[in-house]
UniProtKB/TrEMBL annotation:
Residues 1-18 form the signal peptide. Keywords: Signal. InterPro entries: Cystatin-like, Cystatin_dom, Cystatin_sf. This is Cystatin domain-containing protein. It comes from the Eukaryota. The keyword Signal applies. Gene3D superfamilies: 3.10.450.10. Residues 21-111 form the Cystatin domain. CDD domains: CY. One of its GO terms (molecular function) is cysteine-type endopeptidase inhibitor activity.
Amino acid sequence: MFVAKIVLLCAAVALVSGNPQMLGAPRQLSGAELEQSKLTLQESLTKLAAGEGPSYRISKILSASHQVVAGSLDSYTVELIDSNNQTKVCDVKIWSRTWLENGIEVTFECPNEVTLVRKHSP
């Protein structure tokens, strides 16, 4: 019984003192990870603009996070420039499930606009 208490205590200490990032929780991106994430966003914007749209360019990424889900979920708060050269701040989510046909789902949530969901191939 004493050994079980010691093991439980050690496990609790390891959980408390270890990395506070929970598995599966969103992780804020910076540095090289943020740059790679920007490329992912640009690739999706380019593919969508070549198809049914929308047509946006990145002005500035205000924040970005990555989360492992059934696939991966990249979430951005980003300044986008539309086809009329108007800048707006939108929340963009890219849900990647590369094993599916058209497994990249991009959701745009911009103020005073209907939420737009588009899919494209990986």
